[in-house]
Amino acid sequence: MNQAETNYTTTKKEMLAVVYAFEKFRSYLIMNKSIVYTDHSALKYLFAKKDAKACLLRWILLLQEFDFKVIDTRGAENYAADHLSRLENPYENVFDPKEINEAFPLETLNKIVHNDPSTP
Asked: Which of 11, 68, 92, 98 could form a disulfide with 34 if both were Cys (CB 3.0 to 4.6 A apart)?
């Protein structure tokens, strides 16, 4: 998440997580039915809402190409998510994404991906 996204409400963060997951795994999810389990019932409301803010509408439009349904599960019943949400992240605020770009410039990554023989 970037700095602006860290200030989002819990509802927006949950929606952002769904959008991120569907974009990240797009090639696997695009032609398949999916189920989103959440303990945040407001997400179901947001998907049905017609007069949402521009940011939420944009996310809803992005998600409309996927065939999925949202199922509410109480936090106590969703053991995996409940446990993961309580784990401490020892690497929080340690990772700097700029380091990756410096170590692997986009040109080098592109050559690696396309099996360019001139790769260093």
From this structure: 68
* Mean predicted confidence (pLDDT) in 2-17: 86
Between strands 33-38 and 67-72, the pairing is: parallel
65 touches 31 (CB < 8 A): no
DSSP for residue 32? S
Give the ranges where 1-120 is alpha helix by DSSP (H). 3-6, 10-24, 26-29, 42-48, 54-63, 79-86, 97-103, 106-113
Evaluate whether 43 touches 15 at the Cβ level (below 8 Å).
yes
If we measure between CA atoms, which residue out of 9, 74, 65 comes closest to residue 41? 74
114 or 88: whose pLDDT is higher?
A: 88
Query: What whole-number percentage of the chain has pLDDT above 70?
Result: 69
Nearest to 36 by CA among 8, 7, 59: 59
What is the rounded distance in angstroms from the CA atom of residue 68 to the CA atom of residue 19? 12
CA–CA gap between residue 22 and residue 34 (Å, rounded): 10
